Amino acid sequence: MPTKSKKLQKSEVEDLRLKLIESENNFKKYCTEVASQNEEYKAINEKYLKTNEELSEKNSTIIRIMNEMRWNEAKSRQMFISSPVGIMYYDTTLFINELNFAFSEILSAPYNLLKGFDLKTMNDKKVLPAIKDAISGKTGHYEGFYKSTLSGKEVYVNFSTHPLYSREDSSVIIGGVLLAQDLTKWKHTQEKLEENEENLRLTLESIG
């Protein structure tokens, strides 16, 4: 024999209705919170992906620049070695740090003796003021005869000196660079021309 369902009281029905409404509201609230969190997570994820892309681009740029710098340094090194102009680098204490073949050839002095040479000990000190100008932040210049301390060879040179600045701080002078040209043949030619002109003048005067 079937049992009769208990008839709910009006107050019980109302309580149940309120509980259902509360449960529905709680569920909606939960869904809203989840949706909000999802949006936040999406934003964080997008930001993360964007940051990764930016970092990747920056890293690629840095690598490219570094490679270009390496290439430029290698190219500069090759130009330094093969330049017909004599090039010599020295530090603020006037010791030679590096030089190219042309500089060694101009002075007829071996590379291994010139590198590390103390310029303050030069016998011929006429060029020293120009060398010191560079480490004082100025451009120096010397043109005239110079006798090499190491080889004893006398050459007529054009020396120009320039400050060498730090890569990390362009206001800090770390030494100087000297560019050298051997003008000995030109000077001898000029002297020969002047001698011939003088001889011609004296000859003309003697004639009358």
Verbal overview:
The chain is α+β, with helices and mostly antiparallel strands and 208 residues long. It contains five helices and five strands. The protein has helices at residues 10-82, 101-107, 111-114, 128-135, 184-207, and strands at residues 86-91, 96-99, 140-147, 154-165, 173-182. The chain has a five-stranded antiparallel beta sheet with strand order 2-1-5-4-3, with helices on both faces. β4 (154-165) and β5 (173-182) form a beta hairpin. Residues 58-71 have low confidence and may be disordered.
Question: How many E strands?
Answer: 5
SSE order, as H and E?
Answer: HEEHHHEEEH
CATH structural class of the largest domain: Alpha Beta
Work out the helicity level: 55-70%
Strand adjacency order, main sheet? 2-1-5-4-3
Report, as a whole number of angstroms, the end-to-end distance.
167 Å
What is the SS-derived class? alpha+beta
The gyration radius over C-alpha positions equals 42 Å
Arithmetic mean of pLDDT: 76
Low-confidence stretches: 58-71
CATH fold-level name of the largest domain: Beta-Lactamase
What gross morphology would you assign? rod-shaped
Please report which band the strand proportion falls in: under 5%, 5-15%, 15-25%, 25-35%, 35-45% or over 45%: 15-25%
CATH homologous superfamily of the largest domain, by name? PAS domain
Number of domains: 2
The biggest beta sheet reads: 5 strands, antiparallel
- Per CATH, which architecture of the largest domain? 2-Layer Sandwich
Total helical segments: 5
